[in-house]
Design a protein that fits this description.
The protein is α/β, with parallel strands linked by helices. The chain has two domains: 347 residues, Queuine tRNA-ribosyltransferase-like (TIM Barrel, Alpha-Beta Barrel), CATH 3.20.20.105; 113 residues, 3-Layer(aba) Sandwich (Rossmann fold). The strands form five sheets. The chain has a six-stranded parallel beta sheet with strand order 6-5-4-11-10-9. Strands 16-15-14-17-18 form a five-stranded mixed beta sheet. Helix 5 crosses helix 6. The longest helix is centred in the middle third of the chain and has 26 residues. The N and C termini lie far apart (69 Å). It catalyses: guanosine(15) in tRNA + 7-cyano-7-carbaguanine = 7-cyano-7-carbaguanosine(15) in tRNA + guanine. This is tRNA-guanine(15) transglycosylase. Keywords: Glycosyltransferase, Metal-binding, Transferase, tRNA processing, Zinc.
Length: 482
């Protein structure tokens, strides 16, 4: 069977897509709940009730346990888990990263995944953690690529094959690996060994890893961010082009009596109220949840409800063209996420290449918004304005408009643009009345650029008190300020 990933809607580098597998079509972005074949907090057959379309389990665990292995070989993976939808299987790379070795070869585990009917199989790559020496990262990456190429030769039809992108915390190695794997040709591209970054809240470094790997891939290739299970960072990852996530967090957090929200995590014993409207939370109080004999099960269910609610929210944001607004809201939930947002906008040049040129309304959400790709795109197109004679730049209508050949609207963070475009995206921006320093900085730099591009035009600039900024002094030498 040939993989087919169809992109339906786009916003930033995020997209809604459809991934075709042997057991059905999966709409992305989505989360694959992790199923432990030995311990099932929630039965796989119940996962559709929460919104799960696809599951992920560990083929190495199944392989090692004779009872599970024999049943999977006889009846198939889907019968073993009692789930009729798509199932992805990991290869044991996680165990390799934890214990340093596994009792199976790359060829054995790939062939086993095919025999039990996995929809997406994963070769036995080496998940090189962050901050190792470059020598180690390069050596293990070479082994990973050799194993992936061998796996590609083993799998021709039927099971889709994942090509994990490794390279530790070296962006150039991530890009190099992604580029090499793209030439070989895989069906899904997981970004591996990123859990340590998320566990230590190194979200800015995670941004570097994702974008480096994305640069090496075909933009239309489906991407899986391994081990990303907390909903507070889904929007950020989706905006960077990640399509699939896997989550054991719903169960692991519940075991530790932790209650997930889109803005962070609470310990259930510290909750006085349940800030959620899922079926678990609306039918009981915080005290009842704490004292429930099946508290762990209830927490796991709540955590899943919240997880898939966020996925639906992200999809709606993509459809409406306001994904970056959601990202900026979510990234203000934690200082490290805010650092990641700032880091993402350092790649606005890359992001702008993927961001649709037409959306709904631009919402300015704070200083970080001044670095959005729409503003970069606008600054690059200033030379498209053909001006001559006298031009007025003003923020609000005046009686002297008719005295000028051109009337330009001044609107931070963009700058000056023809008044005829004021209701067209992205100039229909919703922003605060008193702009912050960063938005004025971008706006005035664009005005200076516009004036420089039109040296024969006589500019007059009506500047309101709320637009005070040091760059006005430069403007005084180039335009009449009133």
């Amino acid at each position: 069977m040939t993989s087919r990933f169809e992109i339906l809607h786009k916003d930033a580098a995020g997209r809604i897509g459809k991934l075709t597998t042997a057991h059905g079509v999966v709409e992305t972005p989505t989360v694959m709940p992790v199923i432990n074949p030995n311990i099932q907090t929630i039965k796989p057959s119940e996962m559709r009730d929460f919104g799960a379309q696809m599951l992920i389990t560990n083929s190495y665990i199944i392989y090692r346990k004779e009872e599970l292995r024999e049943k999977a070989l006889k009846d198939g993976l889907h019968s073993l888990l009692d789930f009729d939808g798509p199932i992805m299987t990991d290869s044991g790379s996680f165990q390799l990263s934890v214990y340093g070795e596994v009792e199976v070869s790359n060829e054995q585990i790939v062939e086993f995944q095919q025999k039990i009917g996995s929809d997406i199989g994963v070769p036995l790559d080496i998940p090189t953690p962050p901050n190792v020496t470059r020598e180690q990262a390069e050596s293990e990456l070479e082994t990973t690529i050799q194993r992936l190429k061998a796996a590609r030769d083993l799998v021709k039809d039927g099971m889709l094959l994942a090509g994990p992108v490794q390279g530790s915390s070296y962006p150039d190695l991530r890009e190099q690996c992604a580029s090499t794997l793209s030439k070989v040709g895989f069906d899904v591209y997981p970004f591996g060994a990123v859990v340590p970054l998320m566990e230590t809240y190194r979200y800015a470094d995670l941004v570097d890893v994702i974008i480096a790997a994305k640069k090496g891939l075909d933009p239309s290739a489906p991407v899986h961010l391994f081990g990303a299970g907390h909903p507070m960072m889904f929007a950020l990852a989706v905006s960077l082009g990640c399509d699939l996530f896997d989550s054991a967090a719903y169960a692991l957090y519940a075991k530790d009596r932790r209650y997930i929200t889109t803005t962070g995590t609470y310990h259930v014993d510290k909750l006085q109220y349940l800030p959620c409207s899922c079926p678990i939370c609306v039918s009981r109080t915080a005290e009842q949840l704490k004292k429930a004999s099946n508290c762990q099960d209830l927490l796991a269910r709540h955590n899943l409800y919240v997880t898939f609610e966020e996925i639906r929210h992200i999809k709606q944001s993509i459809k409406e063209g306001n994904l970056l607004e959601l990202v900026e809201q979510r990234c203000r939930a934690h200082p490290r996420l805010l650092s990641a947002l700032k880091q993402m906008y350092r790649y606005s040049d890359w992001l702008e290449q993927h961001d649709p040129a037409s959306k709904s309304t631009f919402f300015y959400c704070g200083p970080e918004s001044s670095k959005r790709p729409e503003i970069l795109r606008f600054s690059r197109r200033l030379d498209r304005f053909s001006l001559k004679g006298k031009a007025l730049i003003r923020a609000s209508p005046t009686r002297i408009d008719s005295e000028f050949d051109h009337v330009l609207i001044f609107r931070p963070p963009f700058g000056a643009f023809p008044q005829e475009l004021s209701e067209i995206y992205p100039f229909n921006t919703e922003s605060v009345h008193n702009p912050d320093y960063e938005s004025l900085e971008e706006a005035y730099m664009n005005v200076l650029e516009l004036i420089g591009l039109n040296p024969h035009v006589e500019f007059t600039f009506m500047i309101a008190d709320r637009f005070e900024h040091p760059l006005i002094e430069k403007l005084k030498h180039l335009a009449t300020i009133i």
